[in-house]
Amino acid sequence: MDLFKSAASLLSKSIPAFPYTIQDKVFFDDSIWTLHNGFRKEDSSKCSIFQFEILRDRGRLPLARNAVRKLKTTRHPGVVKFLDSVETDQFIYLATERVEPLSWSTKRGVLDQEIIKWGLYDICKTIKFLNEEATSIHGNVRLSSIFISKSSEWKLFGFEVLTNVKDENVTYSGLLPQAKRYAAPEVGSNGWSGIQTSHVSSTDAFALGVLIYTLFNGSFDAQSELAFKNSIPGPIYPHYKNLLNPNPKSRLSTKEFIDYGLRHGSFFKGEVITFSEEISSLGIMNPVERERVLNKLEEISGKFPEGFTKSKILPELLKVLEFGGGGAKIFSMIINLSSQLTSDDFQSLVSPTIVRMFSSADREIRICLLENLDKIIDNLEKKTVNDKIFPNVLMGFSDPFPVVRELTIKSVLTIIPKLTDRNINNDLLRGLAKVQNDVQPGIRTNTTICLGMIARYLGENTRRKVLSAAFTRSLKDPFPPARNASLLALSATMDMFPMEDCAVRILPGVIPSLIDKDKSIRAQAGKTVDIYMSRVKLMANNIPEVIAAPEGEKTQIDGWAGWAVSGMKKMAAERLAAAASIPPSIADRPSSTPLKLSNPPLSVQSNNFPNVVSSEPITAGATPLPLNDYTIWDEDSPVWDDFQDSTEVGDKLKPKDDGDNAWENDWGLDDD
User: Fold this and answer.
1) Domains, the chain, ranges and CATH?
2) pLDDT digits (tens, 9 = 90+) for 323-352
3) Which of 68, 102, 532, 626 sits in a 20 to 30 Å window from 269, CA-based?
């Protein structure tokens, strides 16, 4: 046990003059290297660290040194990215971008045929670059030399015997693990020195053929098994056989293999490969080409590995969006693709661009942001929302376009859980006060609904000042849905008002709606009155009926108060008897006997307007309608069409202007 602890401690220690820390070992075989995860000390960024043990394998030390030297000087998108290296008395450490062995995925069987062809295409392009442009022989093309990057792209490694054909100092492949198993036929005839006399591409072309067999069929024990097709796709198989031609002069080169694959309808012309080539040039495409690529992305986005979507597709889309291309369509695709990301990935990849876009002057982008805010709000930090996003959202309340003001109101329901109390009770309420006085009736209606839905987020004092003022004022709106929304909001927020406000401010404001010209308003007003009356009565029952008087005043009060009460009682009885056509004898009934009137209560009587066919009786204890039972009002409804048909709609719907600060004064909002 102590031995294992010492080993773990050794691995976690920093290496002198090497700015990286080694972590856990990654399973990796068929190589002179052992692979570890690691991270950079300066910023904790992830990396991979290849380790070569000098004392245990000194005979292969030239191979390790050659790999480091060649990888350091070879820059290509298809090559594992070199970061740093250091050699000590015992080890050589080579730090690269974070990768994982391709063999992991092939053993698990998680790669479908299209992804294999896509990865194979990238490896072929890299081999072609080494053979043609760098005039070099890789000499070690096999499954253990290929790794998958964080973008899910296949990268070539294994530069232990990479040699330029013009070099005099050649490191031969015979020192590699299992060298004879992967060796080309000419090596058996002429030895490893024959590689340099062959065509520069012949050795790697044969190794490419072996790699193709391994990718589609798995491992093999002898080269005689390579003659069988098994699971190799039909379009690839004829060219695969030419890659394995025993005669190096007649063998198909990697360049020719790519050319055959890119012919119309051939094996490298699949939609995945085509799109991966086009996405990198999305920013310089004309609008027609960009639209075609984006439409293709919508069809095949699910076919790419998660890493490619995160590291290649999303960054390209974000880059195009930020520099003014693609507009709302690209933004919608970004939102859909980012739903697959973790919260940390969203913060690092998407959030910075989203924040910058909220300050964009492009109204189309702002509309798209507001429409999709509910899809991204959970991944945005509270501080970012309050400091950078909310100030830009507030500008929407003053936008000259009604659709922006409408969406801004709706976005409040999404953004408010992330807002601070100060932003809610000050800036947000000022913005809502402005749009509740909007010339558009639908916007005024939705503002009232929004206030009812966010009432629980308001401070107690602010709630008391704002809600009663806003709702009672909306009861005077010329637009019926706005008045109805106010009644519904009052019913839903009843518990938020103290008894005094219910009796003194709310009920007096609602009572006139009992005789509204609109039947639906009268019906809802009756329900609202009954709800508030029930609450007021319930609370009034708890008020002490007798107030204790100071000693010495009790006898005097009983004298004049008894006379006053008796007189008023007699007068009230006479008035009630006359109004209800009740014989005077009934007026002298005991006070404990209830008075029976022929007319119904006010809440029911108010529904008996002319041209009313029927009306539903209103129960005194009616349950308030929750705000969740109605939605933001839609301007496309038939009611809105009726208002649009009126030639005087502008004059009828425009509310009275009470001055710039009228709502702020009504709501009790101070400038500070």
Assistant:
1) 14-100 (3.30.200.20), 102-272 (1.10.510.10), 420-542+599-672 (1.25.10.10)
2) 766 677 888 888 888 887 888 888 888 888
3) 102
